[in-house]
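ok so for the tutorial part 2 we go from a plain amino acid sequence to predicted structure tokens. step 1 is just haveing the sequence, like this:
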Amino acid sequence: MKVYKITVGYESDVVSANTIIEALQVYCDVNGMWINEFDLRDDICEIPESEWDKIIIRNSDYDEMNNNWQEKNLTDIMKNISSPDIIGGTSYLDF
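step 2 — the prediction. this is what the tokens look like for a chain of 95 residues:
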């Protein structure tokens, strides 16, 4: 599984998928968007696995009482990803 950064306007999402096409399908499905709604300024790029440990994801559902995780790097998150999905968005990412 690969990781892609999809930037639409000023917002970015990180998506796990096997291919760029699959990443776009997941992104569009989750966001209720059609492929023709992308603008020429929008972008998609693969995030090399060598950079995964540098990207930190903040858990928006973090609850100290439930003892869940507050922050994880992309390497740790990808260990538990088995299907294509959106991993996080701009407000929860540290690039």
